[in-house]
Design a protein that fits this description.
Layout (H helix, E strand, L loop, with lengths): L1 H7 L4 E5 L4 H13 L2 E5 L12 E5 L5 H9 L7 E6 L4 H10 L3 E4 L7 H46 L3 H14 L4 H21 L1
Parallel strand pairs: 1-2, 1-3, 3-4, 4-5
Helix pairs in contact: 5-6, 5-7, 6-7
Length: 202
């Protein structure tokens, strides 16, 4: 995986959010030598920009409010975030933690270590995304199991079936209507809710 990530660094879309100075110039030049496609931004944007794989964000005391606004914006996927820091005081470290950065570059910025930092940060970010997708998949599966359980209970109470027969009834109906078990369970729950709603109106 590490070899693949190293290959993927070529063509990686990187945004450097850093005040225009010699350090930014040096950083951009080195990223381009690695093979990254780099754009710069300053001041700190109000929202996460689209179209970038990685953001290198300068954590500065005088733009803390702007950084907080950026961190609160948007619910979509964010780029791999690497923080650039000058100090290791508690307030800076707190902001780095809040940002969700998966890498840190210390000033003065040196070319040595940048490739390693970029590779590790990208690897950690990709692992995190894969875990988030797996968790979401498991949550959907658990929700489906809970729906099937609820539908079984409805059939057991309403039709006097035992648990096995209730499950088989849901399975047969799902196959007959070309639905998944989860979809069939949802339909049974919805129908039961409608019946209860109408019964209240009578």
């Amino acid at each position: 995986m590490a070899i693949q990530i190293l290959r993927d660094l070529r063509g990686l879309r990187v945004q450097v959010v850093h005040a225009p100075d010699n350090e930014r110039l040096s950083l951009v030049e080195h990223l381009r030598r690695i093979g990254c496609m780099v754009e710069t931004q300053w001041p700190v944007p109000a929202e996460w920009p689209g179209g970038f794989d990685v953001m290198l964000l300068a954590i500065e005391h005088d733009v803390r409010d702007e950084i907080h606004q950026l961190l609160k914006s948007g619910d979509g996927p964010r780029p791999t975030l690497i923080a650039i820091v000058s100090y290791e005081d508690p307030s800076t470290l707190q902001l780095v933690l809040e940002s969700g950065a998966v890498g840190v570059i210390e000033r003065p910025i040196r070319p040595f270590g940048l490739l390693t930092n970029l590779t590790i940060a990208r690897s950690l970010w990709l692992q995190k995304r894969a875990m988030e997708k797996q968790i979401a998949k498991l949550q959907r599966k658990l929700t489906g199991i809970q729906r099937i359980q609820k539908a079984k209970s409805i059939l057991m109470d309403g039709q006097g079936l035992n648990e096995t027969d209730a499950y088989e009834s849901i399975r047969r109906q799902a196959m007959a209507k070309r639905l998944s078990m989860d979809e069939m369970a949802s339909a049974i729950i919805h129908a039961n809710e409608l019946l209860q709603y109408r019964a209240k109106d009578v």
